Fold:
Amino acid sequence: MKLIKNARVVDPSQTLDDIRDVLVENRTIRALERPGSFDSTPVQETTDANGLVLTPGFIDVHVHLREPGFESKETIASGARAAIRGGFTSIAPMANTEPVNDHAAITRLILEKAALADLCRVFPIGAVTRGQKGEELAEIGLMAEAGIRALSDDGMPVMNSQVMRQAMEYASMFDLPVISHAEDLNLSRGAPVTEGAVSSLFGWRGNPNASEEIMVAREIALARLTGARVHIAHISTREGVELVRRAKESGLAITAEVTPHHLLLNELDLLKTAHSCTHHQPRADFRMAPPLRSERDQDALLEGLRAGVIDMVASDHAPHGCVDKDVEFEMAANGILGLQTTVPLLLGLVREGRLSLSRMIESLTVAPARLLGLRGLGTLRPGAEADLVLLDLNEPWELLPAAIESISKNSPFLGRRFQGRVKRTMVGGSWK
Amino acid sequence: MFPVSFTSVHGQSAELLRTLLALSFRIKNDPSRYSAVLKNRTVLQMFVENSTRTRMSFEAAVRKLGGSSIGFSSSGSSVKKGETLLDTARVILQYGVDGIVLRHSSAGAPEWIAHATVRPVINAGDGAREHPTQALLDAFTLAEHWQSKGTANFRGRSVLILGDTLHSRVARSNLHFLAALGARVILCGPATLTIRDRSLFPEFEVVSFPDRILSEVDAVMVLRIQHERQSSGAIPSLREYRHFWGLTRERASALKEDAVILHPGPVNRGVEIDSEVADSPRSLILNQVENGVYVRMAVLARFVGGLEA
Structure:
C-alpha cells in the first residue's frame, strides 16, 4: 500500500476540496481521510504532499500520436511520456495515422504499443469512414470490440451529411460518441488563418467562423435526428459555443471541448510572435486547425468553459517536425504540441482568477471520462483506479526544448515562463 | 546588429518612406553619382515565383549601382525538387551574397528568409500581401507628375484603386504607402474581390461601382484581373467584369481633366482597361516602368549598400 499525506485533494466527482491523506492499495484508491487517519496503517511507501494539490489523473480526449506511420514526429511511447510529464494518465489518440485506424488490427496494434510503453492509458479513437475518406463507414463494430472509445475523422471532416447520419446511427448501437471536427472545407480551403484582421493584412484566404458554425449546426441537427452522442472537437468560435448552448438547453446529448491555445491566444498573437529582429512574421508554430480566432471568440470560449457549455479541455496535441513547420507559413502543417503545456496554461488562468481550480479539474477528469465511458477513471472515489496527479500551484519554471518529451518540438509556448506545474503522475497505483 | 530589411510598407514610418522617395529623385537626377554604391557586392535575386519584369528591373538597378546579381527562378531551382526553401537559402549563402531580393508566393516569406539568412531582404512581392517597391514607384510616379504640375503634395489628393484588391499585393502596399503620405484612398471592385477587414489598415473608403466616384479622383490605379478569378467563382465572366469595372473609354472620359492612370502591369487590354485608355496621354504606365529602376536603386542603395540618405 502507498500513502500520500497532507495533500489538498481536489476531486470534482465528489465535490471535494480539502486536506486529505490518500491510501492506495495495489491499483486502486482505498480511502481518503483526514490527515493522520492512516498513521498506524502499515504501508510500503509514504509521500508527503504537503503544499501540493492532488487530483484525479487527467484525461485528454484529443491527441495525435503519429504511430503507426509518422514515427519521426511522435511514437506512442514518446507521446505517452509527454502525457505523463503533463499530468495525463489517459489519452485518446485520433485515427489519422498511416494506415488510418479504421480497422480492428490497427486498434490492436496501438493498444499493444501502449501496453509495451506501460506509461499512461491509451484509448484509441476509430475512424468514422474507411481511410477517413468520408465515403464508406469503417468497421465500427469490430473496432469497438477491439477497444476504440469514440469515432472521428477529425481533420478530414465528413462533408457528406448522409454519411455522417449513418455513422451516428451506427455508432449509437455501440454507445460510441461521434467526435466532429466542425469545418466546412469548401469555406476554409487554402486558409492558413482565421478570416479577419490578420488574413486581410497578409492577403491570405481566411477561414471564416461560419465554416465552424455551419458544421456545428449540422451535427446538432443530425444528433436530433439520430439520437446519437455527438462531441464537438476544439470549438473555436462564439457562434459555435452559442449553438452548443442552445442544443444543450433543448436536451440533446451534445458535448464540446476547447483547447488551451484557443483559450490563451487569439489571431493577433500571430503578429506578436515576431522574431526579435524583424516584424509581423507569423511563426508556423502558431498555425493550427481550427485557427486562432478573434479576441471576442477567445472571450466566449472561456466564458463557455466556465459556464459548462464547453464540457472539457483537450490538448489537440499534434506533433510536427521541422520539415512540416520550418517552411513558408502557408505551406506549414496545422497543429501544435499540447500534452505538456495544457495543465500549466490552465493553471495560469486559475492563478489569474479567470477559471476556478475545481472547474479546471472537472474539465480534465469527470467530463472526458464521461465522454469516453471510462468507469473508475477521472475520480478518486474509493475503489476507483489509482490514477492521480500531484500539482504545485506556485512553482515557477520555463518551458525549454530539452524538457519536451515529444519527438517534435513544435510548441508556440517554448520559452514561456509558467507558474504552477505537474510534480508527479501515478497510473494504476504506480508512479510514472 | 541584425541587418535591416525592406519587407513591407506596413509598419514603416512616413519619414522612411519620404526618405526613400527623396533618394529616388536624387538618383534619377544623377544616376552616375551612385554607380559604385554596390561595388564588390552581390545581390541574390531569389524569385520563387515567376516574374520577368520585376526581376529585370531589380537586376538593372543592381547593375547601375555597380553591383552584381546571381539568382534563380523557381522553375530552374531545387525548390521544386522537395528541398525546403530554407535549405536552398542556406546553400546559396555559401556563395557569398550581401542582400537578397525575394519574390515568393507565400505572404510573410521575406521576414522568414531574413531571419534565417541574416541578410537584408528586399521584398519583391510576397503572395497577396505586399510589393513595397511597386508602391514606392507608384508614389514616385505620382509625385513626379504632380511636381511637374506645381506641387508633389499628396494631401488633398484622392486615389482610386480599381479592381481585385483582395488578391493584390500592389493594393495592400499602396494602401499603406498612400495613407502615410496623406492621400485619400478609395477601393472599388466586386465584393468578392475586395479587402474586407480593415482593422489593421489605415483608413480607406470602399465603393462597389466606379461610376459615381470617377469625377472626384486625381489618379486611378487599375489592377490586373486574373483569368482564374472567373473559374474560382469570384466573377461570372471577364465580360461582365469589364462591363461594371473596366476602365473603358467612356468611363475615362468622366475623369477630371488632369487625372492620371496607373497600372502595375502586365495590362489585360480590353478587360480591366481599354487599349486607348492605357495608351492615352493621361496614362503614366510607361513612366512607372522607367521609375521602377530608380526606386529599386534607392532601396538597394539604402538597405544593401548602407547608403544613408
Observations:
- DSSP finds eleven helices and nine strands in chain B.
- The first strand of chain B starts at residue 42 and ends at 48.
- The mean pLDDT of chain B is 93.
- The radius of gyration of chain B is 19 Å.
